[in-house]
Fold this sequence. Notes:
The complex is a heterodimer.
Chain A: H1 4-10, H2 16-28, H3 32-59, H4 74-98, H5 105-129, H6 155-186, H7 191-200, H8 208-241, H9 253-279, H10 289-320, H11 323-334, H12 338-351, H13 359-362, H14 365-392, H15 407-430, H16 436-443, H17 447-450
Helix pairs in contact in A: 2-16, 3-15, 4-5, 4-8, 4-9, 4-14, 5-6, 5-15, 6-7, 6-8, 8-9, 9-10, 9-14, 12-14
Chain B: H1 2-15, E1 27-32, H2 41-49, H3 57-61, E2 70-76, E3 83-89, H4 98-102, E4 108-110, E5 116-118, H5 128-132, E6 139-140, E7 167-168, H6 174-186, H7 199-203, E8 209-213, H8 220-224, E9 230-231, E10 243-246
Amino acid sequence: MSNHGHDEETKVRVDFKEVNRDIFSVMTDTGPRYYVVMALFAMAAVGLFILPWAYQIYNGQGVTGLNVPVVWGVYLVNFVFWVGVAHAGTLISAMLFITKTPWRRAIARSAESMTLLALFLVTLFIFIHMGRPWNFYWTFPYPNQRQLWLNFQSPIMFDVFAIGTYFTSSVVFLYFGMIPDFAALKHHATGWRKQLYSVLSVGWRGSDKEWHVHGKATMFFASFIMPLVVSVHSIVSWDFALSIVPGYTKTVFAPYFVTGALLSGFAGVITMLTLVRWAFPVTKKYITLMHYDRVGVFILVLSLTWSYLTGLEVFTGIYANTTYETEHLIYKLAVSPYIYLFSLMIFCNTVLPLILILKKVRKSTSAMFVMCLFIIVGMWLERYLIIPNSLSRKFLPYMWHDYMPTWVEGAITIGAFCAFVTMFMVMIKIAPIISPFEVKEDSGVPMEKGGH
Amino acid sequence: MSVLKSIGGKLKSYRTGGNQETADHRWGMVVDLDRCNGCEACVVACYAENNLPVVGEADCAVSRAFSWIRIERYVEGEYPNVKTGFIPIMCQQCGKAPCETGCPVYATYHNQDGLNVQVYNRCVGTFTCATYCPYDVRRFNWRSYKPQAPLDEQLNPDVSVREMGVMEKCTFCIQRIVAAKDKAKDENRAVKDGDVRPACVQSCPPGALVFGDLNDPASEVSKLAKSPRRYRLLEELNADPSVIYLKRVADEGKNE
């Protein structure tokens, strides 16, 4: 991919010393307001996420709104949603690395951090939705004297491996990329930070050989991680597509889920970058309107693909022409309140992103921010309209039953967002949110001159 | 090569649907809808035999009733020409059960008797089996159901009381099947037709439910299964259920 024309535009020209100073100031200059906001989010995470979960563990899944036909509810919606949010980070850091897309550098690190934190929530949501979460380790293949083994036919089992692989490789990739940054930062840091970064930088000196090996290894990890962008969410979609439930069993689900995941993921990236830019004005030098423009193009393309696949999903249901599929479609597309939710979803994910055709919108941070919030809501609704809604209308009409989430499910859903923000705010202060060495690469000066 | 072949053969035998070709039995049930009068004695018998919790009105209203066997009622037509029907539905013990492929930990699997069994102690509660089940016969322990005061005196000692957070369903009264097999073994003979009678079959006043071994061509269920009225529920899903329904034809032509 050669886009020399764009290269000049995408480069961030900042002095090496200034890069280090700016990024280090983001990590260390913490005002009281930051602590207050972080404490509020942490309190919300405890009050809305941890305590309701403890209440649920103590009292059983009966505190949710689940019932017998609808046994998968909001927790699974959140699970799929957060896997989706995780995907954009991997796409930016791995796929765009391999295609040597220049504008990825300044935003890759924050997107990757988002991947890691989202995957942490994904893991939690699997346990939250289980009936006996204290036995979670039974889903891992470990040798035991009772000779109990796992069912490798089960799509849930595929999930355990997919999410496990994704989480492990994300941690390794993220940490590996940070080693030169930690080494650079340890020269600026004092106190506990210096000790921490000295340990984390594992003796990185910045010799030519080290850079060479680092580059090779990053390319290797990126190639390894790249298929995960497609495979993980395909596997998540198979939880549903491999069943025989009308509304779940559709072959279009794998690409549909992957596209939706990237759409919500990029919306998440923009939301987060906007907040970072707002909280730390110094980052505006690095995260520029050009990034909004490029991500906006991505969102537009993904939104159009998603809309096409949504049409295809509905069409397959109509074309199947079985009574079960028809009943499911009637429930989803013609019954209140789901018809309103469906319309809202289409508005958020198809109609609204069309304004991205205008470059003016793509270059406006506030417009992008608001639109991305809408997309996040729309993508959450998409999963909601698939997961509990299909189960409400299964095969035997006698068992048809509606589903209404309770306050516990609502609180945990909101609490998860608060927990995400808390973790992200902690992360910003411990690890560089913008990779100094990647930004320096943009400047095109030989590394030796800059020191670190 | 012979070693490879034997391994290959073994792997293939694991793959055959539900391995009932080599199984000792294939327990099945015939439900004669001509005889069923919808009295729900089977439902009550099941509650008593299998230690099912009585969950109360509030839980039943949100579709958390615990009955392993239920009588589904359907009403057809407008007022003067109303036609009602009912059908008892329990776990269909599918030969190619959709639920079995869903469970990540083998808490539900196919045993050597062609039964679809549930291991309560192994269940971690992922709900996948209940999602995949097309008959909605699986029941979940939404909370700790403590047996109420007089009812705890009548718990069946042969059946466990399930913990909060596990899935359960009709077992074809597996405790009775095991007891019958043990007795037959003590008497040094094979299990005869009629040795096993699940609680619902035992308590059915008109004798609408018949239980037996579908592998045994001489058993009563095998003979009834040849009836021209025979059908299986949602057969187009190809789950190969072991419960065979005999269509209701008694009042055919009268309500026209």
